[in-house]
Amino acid sequence: MKVKGVNLGNWLVLEKWMHPALFEGTTAEDEYWLPRQLDRKVYEARIKLHRSEYITERDFLTIRSWGLDSVRIPVPYFIFGDREPFIGCIEELDKAFGWAETYGLTILIDLHTAPGGQNGSDNGGICGVCKWASQPEEVEFVLSVLERLARRYGNRKGMWGIEVINEPMLEKMWNKMEIQKRYPPVDLKMAEGSRGISREFLRDFYLKAYDRLRKYLPKEKYVVIHDGFEIDIWKDFMQEERYENVVLDTHQYLMMGEMEGCEQTIDGYLSYIKEKFEKPVEEMQQYFPVICGEWCLFNSLVCGHDTQGGKSVLNGVEGVKQEVFSPEQKREIYQAVAKAQLSAWNKGAGYYYWSYKLLVDTVNSKGWIGWDSWDLGRCVAFDWFPLEK
Asked: Do 16 and 29 contact (CB within 8 A), yes or no?
């Protein structure tokens, strides 16, 4: 089993940095506060327009033309429209399955957010809050969402699998990232008691999620679990025969390597990729099919300054005023890190690039030099990303 795909990030789960205009007229930094700061009619109109235009049938055709075979679609816990004030988006996912099946793609449904927050970051839906794991009724709600998704799509031809929760933040990474400094909570009282998730909780949750999903998800479809940013702690987990087609997802970004002291040079990146990406993936492949569900070409070298682990102008980091490298030099850097990372993921079961597109004007907006590499469409257009057709 090998998968080559791309994430449809910022379509059904919003991330402000990927499309700042969606948050205009508010001080909201995440999806939780956006509808609480906008007039209801304005919010509804803005979200519905965004969803109808951001990803369309044509995008599925484009992705297939690149030689990719799958899309990972982040969805929110309110996908079924049962959590006010949010608007559900199950109809959009229905359309996506139709498009995927027509153009020969599969879909990995990724439950990207949880009520109360599973990681405290903007991509978890609410900044600085990580309390979902300590709220039994919300844990049960997430299990019910997974079950409903499996029931609705389990037998669809385009179904590749379901990822039970995106990037649950285990204690080690919670402390290392200093999440509440990086993503300050708006409501301090709401954020009280936030902490990293324990291994014991996450293991128990994954076992329950597997059983709930398999009621409706055929054995040949995949159940995907995220490593919680600790890839090597899962060797003894779900190895019994009854657990079939369980895939381990790891997310690996060079910007995280930079936080760990990776030298910001081509050689530094290549060495880091070999040691910290390729070797762990190859080792864990003995226990699970391993995919890298999120990665990209972004690095501080091309940005021309240390981004401190991917901080942007939205985080108060200015960036450089003009390109440091020529187009040829940029291509050389990106192609080198692309080739090395693709080699690493090929030691496992494949990958999904983050992300398909980015609605940031990296040319006219100051401080965004180097951020275009998050956009796979631009990477393909500039010949930074080698297509393997």
From this structure: yes
- Residue 73, classed as helix, strand or coil, is strand
Q: Is the dihedral of CA 143, 144, 147, 149 positive or negative?
A: negative
Which are the contacts of 319, defined by CB distance < 8 A and separation ≥ 6? 303, 304, 305, 307, 312, 313, 366, 367, 368, 369, 370
196 secondary structure, DSSP code: P
- Asked if CATH classification 3.20.20.80 holds for the domain at 3-251, the reply, yes or no, is yes
What region, left, alpha or beta, does residue 117 occupy, with left being phi > 0 and alpha being psi -120 to 50 degrees?
left
Which residue is listed with tokens 């109809």? 91
C-beta of residue 75 within 8 angstroms of C-beta of residue 13: yes
CA-CA distance, 270 to 268, in Å (whole number)?
Answer: 6
Please write the tens of the pLDDT for every residue from 310-326.
999 888 888 998 999 99
pTM of the model: 0.98
The count of other CB atoms within 10 Å of the CB of residue 383 is: 12
The domain segmentation of the chain, as residue ranges, is 3-251
